[in-house]
Specification:
By secondary structure, the chain is an alpha+beta fold. It has helices at about 5-15, 65-75, and strands at about 20-25, 30-40, 40-45, 50-55, 60-65. β2 and β3 form a beta hairpin. The mean pLDDT is about 80.
Length: about 80
């Protein structure tokens, strides 16, 4: 698949804004990499769990239920 310049620019901007941190996933309890392309919301690379980052003196990762994505996961 060939991407045009506009699509490459959009994809490039997303990659530049992505954050990768390590932490303990509250779903699988594994020390893993967490990826974020949206502020304060991350996805576990081990189990795919969606979590929200809360900063209040220390960083906590809280499980998030994203209903619109549950249908996609269920349907494949």
């Amino acid at each position: 698949m060939v991407m045009d310049k506009k699509n490459r620019k959009i994809f490039s901007d997303i990659i530049k804004k992505a954050k990768m941190v390590d932490g303990i996933c509250p779903y699988c309890s594994q020390h893993t990499l967490l990826i974020s392309i949206v502020n304060d919301f991350f996805r576990c690379l081990t189990c795919g769990g969606d979590i929200e980052q809360k900063v209040n003196g220390k960083i906590n990762y809280i499980p998030v239920q994203l209903e619109e994505f549950d249908e996609v996961k269920k349907d494949g």
